[in-house]
Amino acid sequence: MSGVSVLLVDDHPIVREGYRRLLERQPGFRVVGEADSAATAYEAYRKFSPDVVVMDLQLAGGAGGLEAVRHIRQWDKKARILVVTMHDAAAYALKAFEAGASGFVTKGGEAVELVRAVETVARGGRALGDDIAREIAAERLAGGRSQLDDLGPRETEILRLVASGRTTDEIARALNLSAKTVQNYHYQIKSKMGARTDAHLVWLAIGAGLVGAERSV
């Protein structure tokens, strides 16, 4: 590959620095910008127009990577975004692709896998880490169905925020929505997932791998 410009989006500076060092050791890669939130990721994308965005899903400041992917792709349908995250749930990977991601690898993978994924996405291909590919295959072969299958990317993001303990007003500010719209989404999500109460909804979100028990309330 030659001349591949990369935008790094992660809320941990040390992680971004690690990605920068890894990628800039590869011939032809150059990191043109960094961001630590969904909002700054969108601004940085418009400023730098990178060939590839390396995006974490868990970001600071409310909105997460799914919303950032969706927002960037709304502005540029040709944006190439590689999700690199700790989340290893098959359903989460599928939601990232639904939001517009071009690739999905986990942070538990080998460094060479990340480099290959960036190269693949830069060429216009789709990349999927070996571990998450096994998860998806196992789930589909077993005939399993995730609780998240009926939710769109924005509904999934709102569910994550609800399960993380965010209030309606906090979610509304993070996603630039009205409180009433968030409440409507909240009701629709509960209905689609068959949740009787908010506590039940949080339990379902944890079961689907959307959040860890330590992040829920």
Describe the structure.
- This protein is an alpha/beta fold and 217 residues long.
- Helices cover 52% and strands 13% of the residues.
- The protein has ten helices and six strands, in the order βαβαβαβαβαβααααα.
- The chain has helices spanning 13-24, 38-48, 65-75, 90-99, 111-122, 130-141, 153-163, 168-175, 179-193, 198-207; strands at 4-9, 29-35, 52-55, 81-85, 103-106, 127-128.
- The protein has a six-stranded parallel sheet with strand order 2-1-3-4-5-6, sandwiched between helices.
- Strand 1 (4-9), helix 1 and strand 2 (29-35) form a beta-alpha-beta unit.
- Helix 2 runs parallel beside helix 3.
- The termini are far apart.
- The relative contact order is 0.12.
Task: Please state the average pLDDT score.
Answer: 85
Measured as a percent range, the helix fraction is 40-55%
Gyration radius, rounded: 17 Å
Task: Indicate the low-confidence ranges by residue numbers.
Answer: 213-217
How would you describe the shape?
A: globular
Would you count the extended β strands for me?
Answer: 6
Structural class: alpha/beta
- What's the story with the biggest beta sheet? 6 strands, parallel
- What's the order of the H and E elements? EHEHEHEHEHEHHHHH
Can you count the helices? 10
Strand order of the largest sheet: 2-1-3-4-5-6
- Span from first to last CA? 45 Å
Oligomerization: single chain
Strand content: 5-15%
Give a quick rundown of the structure:
The protein has 217 residues and is α/β, with parallel strands linked by helices. It has ten helices and six strands, in the order βαβαβαβαβαβααααα.
